[in-house]
Amino acid sequence: MTTARKAPVSGAELIAEARRLAPLLAEHAPEGERLRRAPDAVIRALREARIFDLMVPEVHGGLGLDADTFLEVGLALAEGDAAMAWLTFFYIEHNWMFCQFPMSFQEKLYASTSHVLAPAVVAPTGKSVEVDGGFRVSGRWQFGTGIEHADDWVILMTLVPSDSGPVQLRMCALRRDQVTVEDDWFTDGMRATGSNTIVVEDAVIPAEQAILVQPISDGTGAVHDLPLYRTPMQPLIMLAVSMPAVGQARAAVRGFAERARNRSFLGSKTKLAETPAAQMRLARAELEANQAEQLLRSMTTELMALRNNATVADRARMTAMTALAVDQSKRVLRLVHDASGASAHRTSDPLQRGIRDVQALSAHPTLSMDTRLETMGRTMFGFEPGVPV
User: Fold this and answer.
1) What percent of the chain has pLDDT over 90?
2) What InterPro entries does UniProt report for this protein, alphabetically (predicted)?
């Protein structure tokens, strides 16, 4: 059985679809919070718009688009809802991971579909041991973003047991029915991601469903002769985790401007927009949100120019740029929230939800500002980075 070929979609058309869908994400954001998973209607709309096909090569029926389109689609969707945007970007990027596995496995995976919805937990909190014909996988992986709408597969990072030598990581693809899910995603933010814990007990997988991570990290393990598949993994992951924050900063600036135009100042006839304080806050928020966005644009341009020619220092700088963009986005949200009045503290308020979501996503270990600055500084002095870049 072969993948049914769909009508081609250009990058510009996909970006337009993302902009069209952003209000839908915003509309369903309260539902996602309540359900603690993505609303079915949103997943369905994203599928129909081919958003999840973005990184899948055309040979598998995907769109074969690059990081620049990913950025534009990402920023557009992120203005609607941070949690759904996060989930969407992970689903997109996890297809990029699947397309690093041997072609024999890819052909089975994409035989009847142009994308696969799957979680991929990259923290190596489990292990994979070589057995006859494959590997035995066991462990417990927290933060399984996307498991609630997973099709038939999951990706899990594992440690490769070794008595000597450097630690190696192995990426393993397991069937959905080989894992169990612990319903433990009770959080103050990013609730709609449904990032429950995934547990595996002695699941055996064939050899074609496991690959070493180092070549993918360096951008040298490409099965597909496409620039995107010669791109280092960590900066691409960092782009995915930072876009929701930057999109929410943009939305917060726009929302504050609208709120200030319609809200009276201390019960007077003066609108908040007429006060110097609101004007200065709006101007500063706009400048800082734009700075955050430009950091991602500069990083994406550099990533596409360098690909796997990027040095460790280059990659450390690019990952620090994305972390800084998130840090600035948090500041923008606080800046406008502090001047938005008591109504902005209602849990149903989009700005309040945006603050909680961005604060929660910024706790992702890859976005630690201290770690990213230290890592960049280490490489500037010629030391090893100490963490993945």
Assistant:
1) 90
2) Acyl-CoA_dehydrogenase, Acyl-CoA_DH_C, Acyl-CoA_Oxase/DH_mid-dom_sf, AcylCo_DH-like_C, AcylCoA_DH/ox_N_sf, AcylCoA_DH/oxidase_NM_dom_sf
